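Slide 14.
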Amino acid sequence: MSPRPARYNGAQMKKGEFTKNIKQLLSFMRRYAAPIIVSLVFTVAGTVISIYAPQVLSDLVNVITGGITMTGVNIDMNELARFAIILIVFYVCNALCTYVSSYIMTTVSQKMCRALRSDISKKINKVPLKYFDSHSYGDTLSRVTNDVDTIGNSMQQAVSMVVQSVCMLIGVLIAMFVTCWQLALSVLIIVPLMAVLLLVIMKFSQPQFRKQQDELAALNGKVEENYSGQLVIKAFNAEGRTGADFERTNRQLKKSTFLSQALSGIMQPAMNFISYFAYAAVCVVAGIMISDSASGVTFGTLSAFLVYVNLFQSPLSQIAQAANVLQSAAAASGRVFAFLNEEELSDESGKTRKLTQGVRGEVEFRHVRFGYNDDRVIIPDFSAKVEPGWKVAIVGPTGAGKTTMVNLLMRFYEVSGGDILIDGVSIKDMPREEVHDLFGMVLQDTWMFQGTLRENIVYSKQATDEQVRAACRAAGIDHYIATQPGGLEHYVEDGDEISGGQKQLITIARAMVENAPMLILDEATSNVDTRTEEQIQEAMDNLTRGRTSFVIAHRLSTIKNADLILVMRDGNIVEQGNHEQLLAQNGFYATLYNSQFAGE
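Slide 15: predicted structure.
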């Protein structure tokens, strides 16, 4: 099963993590500064219109109340119509500004999501393989999909919301104090209450938002595990256990999601409740002042202030809502930027290709030492020299270090000590691309992608139709391809309709098209039947002739004709020689060989 990302622990939340994550996100958004500024200009324009509109409403109310006297109603309809039209125009302009701002921010958020996904995709190709040894595929997938979507949706809402709210607060405060400073002070009694409430709720809800994103990643890992391992799950009747394990993770996600939403959901009703105090305070103070004609406060003033109270509490509520959104964005961006900030493979853009005149295929391991960390040394001291054109078999029990040696040879991992040389040149001095170009690989675990059979065989190389057909014939896959609709142009959705043996043959054909000067074969015939194995073995003999090849062998019958057999145990070469020499020594290799064929 894929390694599981560590469970989130609320105690792991570092102080200032929210601020750090938001700063990283804002730094990333700098590239979209121009459209964001344009959007914010429309947001500010709409806010200014919203703030000024109550003044027009106040004048409208004063026209109505001024026309009502003890003797009758004598309202100036021209003035009434003029103020009504102005008010309608204001609100139409406000709606247009809001729409344009929202449209621009939607476009920016989608471009930002695309850029983040592209950066993650590029990063995947730059991080060392050891990263994927400790992180599940589902965890990385969750960063590309769920976390990026959360960031995009959050930024689409939060940026405009925060700017609009701040502008609205400042503008409304100025308008209230200009209109009547006594009533303005009566409104401000709610600000400390709302601020304290906001800080307290954020303190308890932010860890739950982070935990929610981590649990979602864990759930994705379980889905990926269960999907890719269906054959094993069914074969071992493990549906009940895997289902229970999934439900356990699902419950954890439900719990963290509920807590984050429940805590943050308190904000809006609490803000509304507190704002009612402002309404009451304004009505009481305005009533007292209206009764005193010398104060200058009219019913129009009261009408405007009731609108201002609504406008004042609205941005406070929006800030509370934006705080919820920003918490989700901070949690998601923390995971995304944590991946983007992961250690990368060293930059080798300054290195030039070393083997430009042809590759002989001489390989030397000089006191190679390797460990995933200082406490886990896999290969303590490994030395061997391989002559050009040799077929080298690497055998040994599970965990002996066979695959690790190949990974080091390909520079998938870097040696901890010692060196590996090809034609006398250290692979450390070669660009990784050059090292990879030197080898064709056929692995035990086959891999196919969506595309035609031709695309799967040719893959990243250029090849003529005749070269492709020749490779298919040599690999013994030509008959299967001929039976498929469209032949080489047959489209493969996910490879499930192709048997394991046929996939193996296709990957062998892929290596033949690669035509690299050296080969790495990880028990390439393990998934084919005996008759096909003989055919493939003959094709492999033709393929390896004249090329240095490394064969990781599990079935020792397939490497009898190897020029050199390296017998590994606990990361060391304990024996080396050809098949006859090793049997004659009657040592560890002979024990392995005889145990495989004891019944024959």
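Speaker note: The two ends are 35 Å apart (CA to CA).
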